[in-house]
């Protein structure tokens, strides 16, 4: 039981609680100190003071005071509850749950503690515990609709859909009157119940429920989509076709509806399929989908006719996205060539006088020139000289077109001239300085050209000037993942590993924030009745790190950490205990960090007088980034730090071959041979002929052979039985030579085989000269030559200058060799 207070102090304690709820922290601390002056051992007041201090950002002081509160009164539910809130604030959810449970043992009827416990159980995906908490909450307050729906959601997420449905049945039986047809909360419950029935596989019952309970549901689109789905599952194709036609009448631009309608109508020939699209093209003259989608399945003269009609219509209108709408057809060589021919015919048949329509010069012939420029710039039909020719003609006709200038910048990028690409993208930006998109593209091209400072200045055109830390801090606040990734990669190319690693860590932190942000929606979504959207959000959150944005940043970070570990290992092998190169990098990063810190301190001093003491330190305007230069990351043990990324990559992107290779690189260096072999076998299963996989096979064979006999017997047996990439009677050298002979016409495979020779101990100078000689190969592209250059630089080869000279002679416009 809490320690009793005299009436006057008890009233003041309630005021402290109100001060905290109203975020009047300074006043709350003052009142708490008044109580503690008379009753210094009062646990509840001490706990509230700790809570207020935590809200002001004084976390360490708050924890110390929270422990004092517990020592003063171990039997106070308030002290344990506050202790749980402190753990929750630092994202230590397991410790917070333990504290909440202890508080509930003291006060099992506390709705607030029970609610906080349930929210954390959902956050940590403790579904069995969440079910029990929700049962208790429902028993305490069964009159609240959200308690019923929350219990149903708990059973649903615990894979007990039948019980979840029964919960909603019981709720409906408690209703004394039928809810209004305009009751959106009840309408959502009905559709959620229907979803539960369908997920149990009982589509007939789901359809019956839809026809009875959801006939007048407010979400008409969901009702129609579910009805069509159930009818299709039940093979009632005629009825399903009628519903899909109704859906197309609502939205004739939805491609999936056409596909589903085709499936239930069971049409055979392309001619029969096209009749459906012709029907909707005639019915909805302004719709794009019924004219464009038939191009996917038409062939021969039918395709030529349909493509000509569609392309002519789009070019007459001057639609900028025409090529984007059609480029997926380029996997078919006939369609690719036909579209180019049609665009060229269009140009020859339209004279200049008909180009401008209603003052828009991008219609007609300029649109066709723009299409052909994109056509020849696309990787499946690339001919960059032709692309440049057509885009120059388009710009000559319409000098103020942003899109034309952007395409010319892309062509220069594909030519390898990043200076020119950045220059032309900047010209495009100056044509429309109020467009945020073109500004970000200009900044991106600057970053690709390793001009980080100029790119940040460019982004400053659209960031808040008052943000502490300038444009960079505002971009972090806005969670501009693309910018942080490109910025980090640019720093990595410049050799500034500290800032690069810090950018990749910031990307990871943003994904952590997205995971943590769902906490607020556990209560909000159920209170507002958005049950289906809430379930979808939870499932999306569970796989959020599958996103390519995360994979890209994580792989970049792992590659840098592996590079740093290799460098440190080489330094130790050469007797350099201090690793002078890394020490120089840290010194350079520290100097840059000092300058940045001085700048931030000046800005902070200007705003110090305006700071509201009642606002917590987590307020957005006061947030600052520690260690922008990444000094702490440079001091961290590389492989241990890399494991944070590797574990997420292997968990969420197991089908990504680069994730498996990254896992191998870290595990093999940590001497976790079984885990490394697991990643290697997974990569082989994904693409056994990948040249990067071959490099790892050779590396594993070369690493494991000398140490295999020293490993535990079970580990030896496992490796012998699972490592089958190299035949038992083959040496690594023989296997590598066979690989080279099998892929001698493929430059990437040849490069991997030559690199493998260095791993196997061949003369480094000989291997380096073999790599240099590859630049003369006819099939070698400048991108592949750039990768060879990076390898030589990593090896600190004396052949770097020779390679640069040869590469520059062959590709004089490519900037990466200059």
UniProtKB/TrEMBL annotation:
Keywords: Repeat, TPR repeat, Transferase
One Gene Ontology cellular component annotation held by this UniProt entry: NatA complex
Disordered: annotated span: 572-621
Residue stretches of each TPR repeat: 77-110
UniProt key word Repeat: yes
Composition skew (Basic and acidic residues), residue ranges: 583-621
Record Pfam families: NatA_aux_su, TPR_11
GO molecular function annotation: transferase activity
Superkingdom in the source lineage: Eukaryota
Protein name as annotated: N-terminal acetyltransferase A complex subunit nat1
Provenance organism: Sodiomyces alkalinus (strain CBS 110278 / VKM F-3762 / F11) (Alkaliphilic filamentous fungus)
């Amino acid at each position: 039981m809490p320690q009793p207070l005299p009436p006057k102090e008890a009233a003041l304690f309630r005021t402290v609680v109100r001060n905290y709820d109203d975020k009047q922290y300074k006043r709350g601390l003052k009142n708490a100190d008044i109580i503690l002056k008379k009753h210094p051992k009062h646990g509840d007041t001490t706990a509230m003071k700790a809570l207020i201090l935590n809200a002001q950002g004084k976390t360490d002081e708050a924890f110390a005071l929270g422990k004092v509160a517990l020592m003063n009164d171990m039997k106070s539910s308030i002290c344990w509850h506050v202790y749980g809130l402190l753990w929750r604030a630092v994202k230590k959810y397991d410790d917070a749950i333990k504290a909440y449970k202890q508080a509930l043992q003291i006060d099992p009827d506390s709705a607030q503690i029970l609610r906080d416990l349930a929210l954390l159980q959902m956050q940590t995906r403790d579904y069995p515990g969440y079910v029990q908490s929700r049962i208790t909450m429902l028993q305490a307050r069964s009159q609240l609709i959200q308690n019923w729906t929350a219990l149903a959601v708990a059973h649903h997420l615990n894979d007990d859909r039948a019980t979840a449905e029964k919960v909603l049945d019981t709720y409906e039986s408690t209703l004394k009157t039928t809810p209004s047809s305009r009751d959106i909360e009840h309408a959502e419950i009905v559709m959620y119940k229907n979803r539960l029935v369908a997920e149990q596989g009982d589509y007939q019952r789901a359809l019956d429920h839809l026809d009875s309970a959801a006939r007048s549901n407010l979400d008409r689109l969901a009702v129609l989509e579910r009805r069509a789905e159930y009818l299709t599952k039940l093979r009632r194709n005629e009825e399903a076709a009628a519903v899909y036609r109704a859906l197309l009448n609502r939205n004739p631009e939805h491609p999936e509806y056409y596909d589903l309608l085709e499936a239930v109508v069971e049409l055979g020939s392309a001619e029969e399929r096209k009749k459906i699209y012709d029907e909707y093209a005639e019915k909805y003259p302004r719709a794009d989908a019924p004219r464009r989608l038939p191009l996917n399945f038409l062939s021969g003269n039918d395709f030529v006719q349909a493509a000509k009609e569609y392309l002519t219509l789009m070019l007459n209108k001057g639609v900028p996205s025409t090529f984007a709408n059609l480029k997926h057809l380029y996997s078919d060589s006939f369609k690719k060539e036909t579209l180019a021919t049609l665009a060229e015919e269009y140009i020859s048949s339209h004279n200049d006088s008909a180009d401008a329509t209603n003052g828009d010069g991008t219609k007609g012939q300029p649109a066709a020139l723009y299409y052909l420029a994109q056509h020849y710039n696309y990787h499946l039909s690339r001919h960059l000289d032709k692309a440049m020719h057509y885009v120059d003609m388009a710009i000559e006709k319409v000098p103020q077109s942003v899109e034309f200038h952007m395409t010319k910048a892309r062509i220069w990028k594909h030519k390898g001239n990043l200076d020119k690409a950045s220059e032309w993208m900047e010209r495009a930006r100056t044509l429309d300085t109020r467009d945020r998109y073109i500004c970000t593209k200009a900044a991106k091209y600057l970053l690709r050209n390793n001009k980080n400072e100029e790119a940040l200045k460019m982004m400053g055109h659209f960031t808040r000037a008052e943000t502490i830390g300038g444009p960079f801090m505002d971009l972090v606040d806005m969670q501009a993942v693309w910018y942080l990734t490109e910025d980090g990669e640019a720093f990595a190319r410049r050799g500034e590993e500290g800032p690069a690693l810090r950018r990749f860590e910031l990307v990871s932190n943003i994904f952590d924030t997205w995971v943590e942000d769902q906490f607020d929606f556990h209560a909000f979504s159920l209170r507002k009745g958005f049950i289906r959207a809430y379930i979808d959000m939870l499932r999306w959150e569970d796989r959020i790190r599958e996103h390519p944005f995360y994979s890209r940043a994580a792989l970049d970070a792992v590659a840098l950490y592996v590079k740093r570990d290799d460098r440190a290992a080489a330094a130790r092998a050469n007797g350099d205990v201090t690793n002078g190169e890394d020490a120089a990098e840290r010194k350079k990063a520290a100097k840059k960090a000092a300058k940045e810190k001085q700048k931030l301190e000046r800005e902070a001093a200007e705003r110090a007088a305006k700071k509201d003491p009642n606002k917590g330190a987590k307020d957005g305007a006061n947030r600052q980034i520690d260690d922008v230069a990444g000094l702490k990351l440079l001091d961290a043990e590389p492989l241990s730090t890399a494991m944070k990324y590797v574990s997420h990559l292997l968990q969420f992107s197991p089908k990504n071959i680069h994730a498996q290779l990254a896992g191998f690189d870290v595990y093999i260096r940590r001497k976790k041979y079984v885990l490394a072999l697991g990643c290697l076998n997974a990569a082989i299963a994904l693409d056994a002929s990948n040249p990067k996989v071959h490099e790892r096979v050779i590396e594993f064979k070369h690493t494991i052979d000398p140490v295999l006999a020293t490993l535990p017997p079970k580990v030896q047996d496992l490796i012998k039985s699972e490592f089958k990439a190299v035949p038992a009677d083959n040496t690594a050298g023989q296997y590598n030579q066979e690989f080279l002979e099998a892929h001698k016409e493929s430059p990437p495979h040849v490069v991997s085989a030559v690199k493998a020779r260095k791993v196997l101990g061949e003369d480094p100078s000989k291997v380096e000269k073999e790599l240099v000689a590859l630049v003369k190969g006819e099939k070698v592209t400048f991108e592949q030559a750039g990768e060879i250059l990076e390898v030589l630089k990593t090896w600190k080869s004396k052949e770097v200058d020779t390679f640069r000279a040869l590469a520059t002679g062959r590709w004089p416009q490519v900037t990466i060799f200059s």
